[in-house]
Amino acid sequence: AYPRAIAVDGAGLLYVTNTGNDRIDVFDRSGGLLRSFGQSGRGTGQFNTPLGVGADAAGYRYVADSVNGRVQVLDPDGSIAAVWGSPAPGPTILPNAVAVAFDATGNAYVLDQRRGRVIVFDRATGLPKRTIGSRGSGPGKLLDPSALAITPGGTISVADTGNERVARFTIAGEYLGARTDAGPVVGIAVTPDGSRTYVNDKRYIRVLDANGEAISEFGGLGNKLGKLAAPAQITLDAAGNLWVADKGNNRVQQFGPDGERLLTFGERGIGPGQFINPTGVSVDCRGTLTVTDTQNNRIQQFALAAPPVATCATLGALGNPPPPQLPTLPIPLGPQLDVRVLRSNGLFTSRVLALRVGCDTVCTVEATGTVTERRKPRKRKRAFSVSLRKVTTKVAAGESKIVRLTLSRAQVKRLRKAMGSRRGLTVTLQVIATASVGEPTAVNRRLLAGG
User: Fold this and answer.
1) 405 with 449: CB under 8 angstroms?
2) What is the pLDDT of residues 363-395, one digit of tens each?
3) 329 occurs within a structural domain
4) What are the CA-CA distances from residue 157 to residues 102, 136, 171, 358, 427 (Å)?
């Protein structure tokens, strides 16, 4: 149910992350189901919401086992060859792996969406070599990235979705700059020679040169030929033509290298060649087009009328990695802390400020706050304030809970007396999460509230 990602290996077999059923399905080139492997769970060979899958030319599949905080490497017969990262809950360097790409030597670059970074795993050992980027909005930082691509020359392009830009790095981790007017990019495709990068947001396809500068753009919102509605994954075939999963229009479109309209097919429906919200497209080296027909919970494959000529590459055998363990490189970060204010008005009546807090790993949360009158009278030197009652609680990995900071009746009485008829308040919050590994994570927030 709800396939999320697809990959094709050197033999032309199709591997689909069957996210709703927590397993991997394998199809042959004619669309027949060969086998399924995996089940819901945290053990080796089990999955919990697998989001991405990448197939290298040697026939190994790399599954981004997102909720379990790891990548599981499968050999050609579907058995587990390696487990990279440490199973969640607990400290893990991969709290939300969403995509995998490879450099020319077969090293794997795993995109960790939650912490905004790329972790590079050595193909031969299965150990992390380095990290690229970190969570944030400054130069070299990433916020909710969703896709990545690597050129043969060694340039990494990352769909930095939360910052609405395309960030570029060398495979050594050097920051090369960003294209800042690309919008909320959700897909990336790179030509084999690295001369062009195609990126798409919810409306447009943009073409960038090798230096990240814009060459052209095409598409635009609409349902006419050549127009797009919430396009999802994009991919290039060997002839340099671009295929787009035009999700909102329930169709697939093919464009030439400069945006020429070449082919459009599909419509909303459940029959062959019809789609409901297609999200993924892939063209293998043998000229087979594969589409993830997401809301129909199926995969459709099409033989291209004039398949492009390509050579299927090969790689050396995968080395024997060590048993799954928390690697010492990179050093694990502290817990990822999420804080949302549920209600900030009516404090004089309810005497409660409710928050929802969540952690990506088991953590202890301590929340404190101060309530201050928004405007002080001229006759006083400073505004009157009271402290909210401190709350300490434990939060399970990947879950959240409601935390209630309270005022006593006596505190409300003093505030009302100091403020008179005014009701404007300022609340200063500090929430600190501590886990067994890494430094504590703090969220400080200042918000307007009402009495």
Assistant:
1) no
2) 899 999 998 887 766 666 677 888 999 999 999
3) no
4) 12, 17, 10, 30, 41
Name the amino acid, one letter, at 445: R
Helices (H), 143-231: none
Q: What is the pLDDT of residues 45-60, one digit of tens each?
A: 777 766 666 666 565 7
- Taking each continuous run of H as one helix and of E as one strand, the counts in the chain are 2, 36
Is the pLDDT at 345 greater than 60? The verdict is yes
pLDDT digits (tens, 9 = 90+) for 247-297: 899 999 999 999 999 999 999 988 778 888 887 777 766 677 777 666 665
The SS3 call for residue 161 is helix
Q: Which amino acid is at 1?
A: A
- Average predicted confidence (pLDDT) for the chain: 79
Q: Does 162 map to a domain? A: yes
Residues 129-136: contacts with CB under 8 Å, at least 24 apart: 129/329, 130/172, 130/173, 130/329, 130/330, 131/173, 131/330, 132/156, 132/169, 132/173, 133/158, 133/167, 133/169, 133/175
The pLDDT value recorded for residue 29 is: 60
Query: Shortest CA distance to 140 belongs to which of 114, 162, 116, 109?
Result: 116
The Cα 72–Cα 272 span in angstroms is: 33
Query: Within 13 Å and on the Cβ side, how many CA atoms surround 21?
Result: 14
pLDDT (mean) for 421-430? 83
Both 292 and 382 in one domain: the answer is no
Pinpoint the alpha helices (H) of 227-357. Answer: 347-350
Residue 327 included in any domain: no
Take residue 211 and report the two structure tokens written for it. 């230096």
Domain of residue 215 covers 3-303
Whole-prediction pTM:
0.60
- CB-based contacts of 208, cutoff 8 Å, min separation 6: 166, 179, 196, 197, 198, 199, 214, 215
Token reading at 441: 């994570």
pLDDT at 277: 82
Q: What is the pLDDT of residues 15-25, one digit of tens each?
A: 666 666 656 66
H/E stretch holding 417: helix 409-419
Produce one character per residue of 284-298: b if its CB has 16 or more CB atoms within 10 Å, e if not: bbbbbbbbbbbebee
Residue at 426 is within a domain: yes
Per-residue pLDDT at 142: 93
Q: Give, in degrees to the nearest 5, the angle at Cα 32 between 27 and 35.
A: 50
Q: What is the rounded CA–CA span in Å between residue 177 and residue 245?
A: 28
394 and 261 in a common domain: no
Between CA 136 and CA 333 the distance in angstroms is 14
